[in-house]
Amino acid sequence: MREKKIMEVKKLGIDQLKFSKGSKIYSKGEKAHFAYYVHSGKVNIYSPGGLLLGQIGEGEIFGERGPSLDESRSVTAEASTNCILYPINEKTIKKKIRDADPVVRAIMRSLLIRLNDINMKSEDFWRSLNVMTSLSDDKD
Questions:
Q1: What is the pTM (predicted TM-score) of this model?
Q2: Is the dihedral of CA 114, 119, 125, 128 positive or negative?
Q3: Which one of 18, 46, 105, 120 is CB 3.0 to 4.6 Å from 76, fit for a cystine?
Q4: Complete domains list, the chain, with CATH
């Protein structure tokens, strides 16, 4: 549905998307066709289990991992404020990576893979902490 909306926006020649606070931008498991540049507002990034992994603000890009590595979304992105985003299509991302210095390409790939690993480890830690907290005996 969101990709259809993006395609409709592109047909109009408008390269910006508006999301209201609380709107899902994408969900884990969806095909990744775009990365997003945040023109205004803030976006929360959540693990599959709902752990807040980070907040992306004005001037930053998110959602680049999936299109760069030909993988589906590994996290969920949600507007934490009203925001305006500029989608960057998969073709553009791949061209910029392909045109980059080979060392920069290797660094980027390594960082994207590590980002996914640390996101998974953060959620595992969060789950373990919740289990340990639930097992603690706070009774007097």
A1: 0.75
A2: negative
A3: 46
A4: 2-135 (2.60.120.10)
